[in-house]
Amino acid sequence: MRYYPVFLDLKDRDVVFSGAGSAAEAKIRLLLKTPARIAVYGENPSPALRQWAGEGRITLAERAIDWDDVSNARLVYGANGDRELDRRAVELGRWAGALTNIVDNLEESEFLTPAIVDRDPVTVAIGTEGTAPVLARRIKASVETLLPQSTGPLARIAEKFRPAVAELSSKARRTLWGRFFDRDGALAFEAGGKAAATDALQRLMAADDGEKPAGSVCLVGAGPGDPELLTLKARKRLDEADVVLYDHLVAPQVLELARREAKLVSVGKKGFARSWAQADIEAEMIAQARKGRHVVRLKGGDPAIFGRLGEEIEALAAAGIAYEVVPGITAAAAAAAAAGQSLTKRGHNSAIRFMTGHDTQGFAEQDWAGLARPGAAAAIYMGAKAAPFIAGRLLMHGASRAMPVTIVVNASRPGQQIIRSDLGRLPAAIGAAEGQGPALLLLGLAPAAGAVGGLTQAEQTEIHLRSGAA
Ligand code: SAH
Question: Where does the chain hold its CATH 3.40.50.720 domain(s)?
């Protein structure tokens, strides 16, 4: 480690720039976040610098830098892009006892500016000693996703409560701050800002005196299967969960992202495991939340699409349990992406229906006449078994046998299969999909234009079954 990181206090200090072009502008953009007095000397200032000067955020003099300009400087930058002018700035800076930097010239600089993740007052500085700026940017991007926007405000709240919390035992303190920063504080901040987060901290402090902290339920969309198709928020909630109640459609790779200590409960309605009635699922969610647990109710795809979200929300509201819904990528979106088709297309279909092939009564009756019209399109969930019935109804209502149908099995999962066919051949085509995994039917979409990226040929099967005329 040749460069030793320190954080410099710039309150009431001068930062002086020689050079008023884009190099200075880039550095100043960051420095404007500090309380430093920023002074810029140079000809032909950039428009942004002029604007900041006009707003009184920096001082700008369109002349060369001089001895008097640096006398109170903590940092002096040479940003002229001109060797002689920059060296002169460094000479002045050193004389004044400031730290000096020539922009983009490591060898002649005493310090370098790191890549920064700003969650004021929390700052993460990333440096590669000039070896790999691209790497620094990549690390910055991953740290950005790791640190929610609430990090800064939570740190400020913690600062205020530190004296009060200091009276707890050191173990209680660690537990309390862990819960506050990782979960209760962050969740409360998202829901209700600073005031809510402050309340959450006060509740945690009270809980340490014996009162139980409040639990919560988060209804999370697990997406179609590929863990990379989870939202960042879904990942976060999984990472915070005490209990995860998941459906059979949730892919095992997604479950692996749950917190190591979390209790995983399959409430799916498939296989030999105990099958849960909807009322039992709701009762379990509520019971766990009442014990103060953070419950994640994990559903395949998007929870609001054929996921019984409405019933679960009603049950939670009736029980007075705080809940949150995190949307997910629904199977129709994943299937269209896999097939390289658009769910809507200008001049082809300006609407699409999300329908189910099955309801509690068996095969679902739909507006077949509407769907049989040219230009109609639909994504059909739970439609594999009902496929011959659906085809029959549509043909009966005058749909064309050539209406394009794409069946996507295991969209975004291992064993993804795409069957391109048409309405006339739908009953035969669905046979090829039987028993392979969840299948989604896309009816009436504009055909794919060409090769589809993502999976290699070996990972996905593609079958074409057509009635003839396209
Ligand atoms: N809430 C889910 C849908 C639940 S209904 C969502 O938004 O995706 C279950 C049906 O969804 C399955 O019968 C199947 O039609 C469809 N489905 C779910 N995941 C799928 C996948 N990975 N590939 C294809 N179809 C899928």
Answer: 1-113
Q: Percent of the chain, pLDDT > 70?
A: 94
263 is catalytic: no
Query: CATH number of the domain at 214-329, please?
Result: 3.40.1010.10
Long-range contacts of 414-418 (CB under 8 A, 24+ apart): 414/459, 416/338, 416/455, 416/459, 416/460, 416/461, 417/460, 417/461, 417/462, 417/463, 418/338, 418/339, 418/460, 418/461, 418/462, 418/463
Active site residue: 14, 69, 226, 247, which one? 247
pLDDT bin (cut points 50, 70, 90) of residue 168 is confident
Alpha helices in 270-382 (DSSP H): 278-290, 309-319, 331-339, 368-372
| 150: helix, strand or coil | coil
According to CATH, where is 3.30.950.10 located in the chain?
332-467
pLDDT at 212: 60
**Closest atom of ligand 1 to CA, residue 307:** 1
Q: Which residues contact 430 (CB under 8 A, 6 or more apart)?
A: 384, 387, 388, 407, 439
Tokens 């004044």 label which residue?
Answer: 96
Q: Separation of 249 CA from ligand 1 center, angstroms?
A: 7
Predicted pLDDT at 457 = 44
- Ligand 1 site, residue 410, Cβ cutoff 6 A: yes
pLDDT at 454: 46
Residue 247: active-site member: yes
- The pLDDT tens digits of the residues spanning 286-301 come to 999 998 888 999 999 9
Residue closest via CA to ligand 1's atom 2 equals: 301
Which CATH architecture describes the domain 1-113?
A: 3-Layer(aba) Sandwich (3.40)
Other CB atoms within 10 Å distance of the CB of residue 409: 26
Is 370:376 a contact under the CB 8 Å cutoff?
A: yes
The continuous run of DSSP H or E covering 78 comes out as: strand 73-78
Tokens of 134: 């691209």
Distance between CA atoms of 163 and 342, rounded to whole angstroms? Answer: 58
- 8 Å CB contact between 402 and 469: yes
Task: From 243, 225, 245, 222, select the one nearest 234 (Cα to Cα).
Answer: 222
Pairwise CA distance, residues 195 & 183, whole Å: 16
pLDDT digits (tens, 9 = 90+) for 424-461: 999 999 998 888 999 999 999 998 876 454 444 445 67
Average pLDDT of the residues in 215-232: 94
Atom of ligand 1 nearest to the CA of 416: 23
For the structural domain made of 332-467, what CATH number should be given?
3.30.950.10
Q: How would you classify the pairing of strands 216-221 and 243-246?
A: unpaired
211 pLDDT band (50/70/90 cuts)?
Answer: low
